[in-house]
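Homework help thread (please don't just give me the answer)

Our assignment gives two proteins as sequence + structure token strings and asks us to describe the second one. The first is just a warm-up. Here they are:
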Amino acid sequence: MEDQNLKLKNHILQYGSILGGIYVVFGLMLYSRDMHCSQDIEITIISLVIMASIIVIAQFIYKKENSGFISLSRALKLGVGIGLISAIIYSLYFVVLATVLDPDTIAKSNEVTIEKMSESRYVTDEMLEKIEDDMDNMTPPKAIFNETSGILIFSIIISFLISLISGLFLRHNRSE
């Protein structure tokens, strides 16, 4: 049993690092094109497709190396672990981005957020004003902490959902 846990840990670290590296390269690409503060749905969809692909590939490979068996719980552990490792790597990149590469990242993101919210018919002027004030009064370290926390939480939730769906299709338990 210990050997299987070690095997799972190695897969999590390997594929989590691969996904984190892909996200960093993708983030650098967006930064080089000055799109790192954009909130386009296409960028989100691409990120989700990349995450889903890596998680499903890791689950397939784990199943193949495990004599064709993978339980739903192992599929979930594998996917969420990969999501967590990649989120930690990307969060570190984001800290470097927001403090070294482009210290105006937070301000630019706030501008884009306010612009998008002002286009919504559900956000009143009073709400918009309050949100702007809150964003203006937030210190950069707190904003970076909030962003990295959001990255971690979002990644764990999304990787859980992806792992659950793919795990339900891939699972094949050993006969007891």
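The one we have to describe:
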Amino acid sequence: MQKMESIRLLSSGIAHDFNNILGSITGTISLIEDDVKKGITSKKEIEDYIEILKLSTQKAKLVVNQLMSLSKKQTVQFDVVNVSNCINDIIKICEHSFDKSVEIIYDNKIKEAFVWGIESQIEQALLNLCINGYHAMTIMKKEDEVRGGVLTLSLQNEKREDKEYWKILVKDNGVGIPKENLRKIFDPFFSTKDKATSSGLGLALVYNIIENHGGFIEVDSTVGIGTTMKVFLPVYKIDLVKKESENISKKNKINFDGKKVLIIEDDQTLQDVFNKILTKLGFEIFQISDASSILDTFEKLKDNIDLLVLDLIMPKISGFEIFNLLEEKYKIVEKNLHVILTTGLAMDERVEKLSKYKNVNILPKPFTMKDISEILEDLFLES
């Protein structure tokens, strides 16, 4: 019964978040449709609409990452992350999502604050802290109290026991946390919010994410005054000049004009997206929507294909099975046929097995044109 109650709380909280996200997306699309019909669209309006849609999809991705964090089988790809950029991105999401009664203040003079970690998880942790602060100044206040306040973020460099950290402060002037609850706030499913809008998983996930990044969290809170969450992440030293020159050199070497790609994707919308993106990058497109005909189609195109795009999950046959069929018959690993495997799942055994091949790269959903370009650069760099 406790497990079922936990699932109910989790699903209602996630549904609430997704309905907010979908509301901003569908509302924006309806505005675009109306403007197009009336012929009054301007470049500035279109750019504003695109920005709202981008931020909404980023927030949706963070919600999905929160769910995936519950599974031990999740993709773990540590890399150099600029925390300053993470904070800026989260503030944009908050500014478009939070009620105007809450003012967001962030006066940061540190432009480069590098850590070794997973960007999406760090953003997820910071977003959870900002949402908690927002709720403390709005929905958690009593009916006779004025809703609103100031959410203040800051980024500082601090040493603790001869170790250097980036300290991120998320401060609100909301309802505050009673002393008896301070030790419980990081427990899974503990929440002082309305059960219809909170799963009680937010701070538990924040704690796990920060701990997995070698950091720690401190909390100061006074009832009626507000709460300050202090996140500490170890500083990562990086040779910026060398890294930037490598990136520029790498990008200048790649040219996809005239290369041919075979896309095997059962979702027509995603197939169209791949088609448009890869066409823009210079590829000649071949497509299959019915994966059962892959062997016949591949036999005809085998000598003319430079890239194969596979979806991991398809109705009749999976991308994993297709890869094994082609490897068995055509030795695509030995011939170094470049493969992109798309997946909306967390890391599982099939993805782990395929990612070990040098000619295969994993593309998590959702993705952008930039994500695909970077993967293609990695795949085609040697050749």
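TA reply:
I won't write it for you, but here's a hint about the kind of observation we're looking for: The chain has twelve helices and twelve strands.
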